[in-house]
Amino acid sequence: MVPVLLFLLFLVIFIFSFIAYKKRVGRAFTSESGGLLWKISLALSLLFLVLSSTTIVPAGHVGVIDFVGHVYPRPLPSGLHLVNPFAKVIKMSIKTQEIKEDMTAPTLEGLTVNLEVSTIYHLDPEKAPEMYRTVGLQYVRILLEPNIRASVRDITASYNAQALYSPARGKLSKEIQERIMSTVGPRGIVIEEVPLRKLVLPQQLQEAIAAKLTAEQQSQQMQFILQKEEQEAERKRIEAKGIADFQQTVMKGIDRNFLIWKAIDASKELASSPNTKIVVFGGTEKSMPLIINPDK
Question: What is the pLDDT of residue 178?
């Protein structure tokens, strides 16, 4: 705005100097002095005209041209541009930005939880002129923040409090992002991510959830112990069956005649031994010899 005013000032000076030069009015305006003055005024006017027509759009921004209330539909990308010196160029950021919202939200059970939600977003460059024309530069406060609060409360009301601590939390965040995007996306705001940063439940509910989780862990531990005991009992049954099968196999392979023959063979070896011994035979055919060594 300042270059435009300076341009107008020097333009007025140029006009009066040129008129004074032409008419050679007064002693202060000789042909030489008047000619020099209007030439200087012309040069300065042209200089400020060029300066006022030049604008620089910073990186990460787009320029929206507003000429006496008319908003041009095509934004200016970052860089150096020549524009109408009487038009305003509004620089709007298209960088990724973050909004943090600390709010209370209801759950499916009717409880109230405290949530801290971050919304990562950026402005769509192609829709920046429309955003400026329909909402203005305060689009975050007017459009984005109210829709964030409404979307978070609508989504959390369909989940119970325990789900907010479970892996369903990621699904909750995704649903909030989609809900916000459905409302502000057509207006030119792109929602990149909506992470849930912090969740605080009422103290009694926290204790109840902790007790329930502890009970579930104990139940799972008991199921593991029972399963282990069942496996150990099955192992012992298999082991006992194996021993019984082995004994049956051994008993089938050893008969009475084989045992008598082995006893007789052992008696013969003892009898032929050079050591002194006493062999006592039983009175029945079922009795085995009793061998006594008197030297020991």
Answer: 93
Say if residues 131 and 139 touch (Cβ distance below 8 Å).
Answer: yes
- Do residues 108 and 102 make contact, with C-beta atoms less than 8 angstroms apart? no
Q: Using the structure block, give the residue that is written with the tokens 């009475």.
A: 256
Give the model confidence (pLDDT) of 81-136 as tens digits.
Answer: 888 878 889 999 999 999 998 888 888 877 788 888 999 999 999 999 999 999 99
CA atoms within 13 A on the CB side of 94: 23
Contact present, 79 and 110 (Cβ < 8 Å): no
Neighbours of 156 (CB within 10 A): 28
pLDDT of residue 255: 61
Question: How much is the pTM?
Answer: 0.58
Neighbours of 19 (CB within 10 A): 13
Architecture of domain 97-201: 2-Layer Sandwich (3.30)
Q: What residues pair up with 57 in beta bridges, in sequence order?
A: 79
**Which of 92, 138, 96 is closest to 120 using CA atoms?**
96
The residues spanned by each domain of the chain are 1-52, 56-94, 97-201, 203-253, 256-292
pLDDT tens per residue, range 261-271:
666 776 667 66
**With contact defined as beta carbons under 8 Å apart, do 122 and 190 qualify?**
yes
* Order of all β-strands in the sheet with 61-67: 70-71, 61-67, 88-93
Can you tell me the distance from the alpha carbon of 51 to that of 137, in angstroms, rounded to the nearest whole number? 25
Task: Specify burial of residue 6 (Cβ count, 10 A radius: 0-12, 13-18, 19+).
Answer: middle
Residue carrying the six token digits 């112990």: 225
